[in-house]
Amino acid sequence: TVSSLAVSGIVKVVAGDQITLEAYQTSGGNLNYSTGTDVATTLSISSDAGNQAITAGERISVKASRTTSQSYSSATMTDLIFDSDSSASRFEEDTHGAYNTTTGVFTAPRAGRYLICAAAHFTHNVANTNCQIVVTDSSNNYIALIGYHQQTPTSHTVGGSVSVYLTAGQQIKIRVRDDGASPAIYGDTTQQATYLSIISDGI
């Protein structure tokens, strides 16, 4: 039996997202795709770019946090993933879908100056170690220092803010380093210990 199936749908994606079209059948042998004509097997993807226009004074805002502890290797610069965004709390938001809570990458929706505020609650087994939190691009190239603390006790919050200029589509990450033994970034569901805020008013 030969039959055709047509489907459609609308999904929200942010710059850099990848999508895959998959099909399957539960019975009846192999699933074969017809070729050789313009109408047998086709795919169309379109975007209403008009709805994505960002006005000059429109506020772009990301507020995210770390809800669970994140462990990593000592003395190694590591991506800090803020795994909770606007879907988790009324105190958090992502107005333009610019932050990826899986990869930790922020993609600037518009060229301009962005105020980045971040804090990380460091924990480790040995006191008097150095901790830092920085901004890098997607290739781990250093952009700016957010916070640095020497001789940190076994549990300490390091944070700060920095203003950077980003081009439209430019991607950045928050990274941390802890020279202590068995380091980890503490997270909790109250969104208070480890958090990120990125704001641009189009100035």
Low-pLDDT regions: none
Largest sheet: 7 strands, antiparallel
Number of H/I helices: 0
Q: Bin the helical content.
A: under 10%
Can you tell me the overall shape? globular
How far apart lie the N and C ends? 61 Å
Write down how many β-strands occur, each being a DSSP E stretch of 2 or more residues: 12
List the helices and strands and how they pair.
Layout: E1 60-65, E2 70-71, E3 78-79, E4 93-94, E5 105-107, E6 112-123, E7 129-137, E8 142-152, E9 155-166, E10 171-178, E11 184-186, E12 195-200
Antiparallel strand pairs: 1-4, 1-12, 2-11, 3-10, 5-10, 6-9, 6-11, 6-12, 7-8, 7-10
Summarize the structure.
With 203 residues, the chain is mainly beta.
How would you explain this protein's 3D organization?
The chain is an all-beta fold. Helices cover 0% and strands 37% of the residues. The protein has strands at residues 60-65, 70-71, 78-79, 93-94, 105-107, 112-123, 129-137, 142-152, 155-166, 171-178, 184-186, 195-200. The strands form two sheets. Strands 1, 2, 4, 6, 9, 11 and 12 form a seven-stranded antiparallel sheet that branches. Strands 3, 5, 7, 8 and 10 form a five-stranded antiparallel sheet that branches. Strand 7 and strand 8 (142-152) form a beta hairpin. The model has no long low-confidence stretch (mean pLDDT 81).
Output the keywords.
5-stranded antiparallel β-sheet; 203 residues; 7-stranded antiparallel β-sheet; 0% helix; mainly beta; single chain; 37% strand
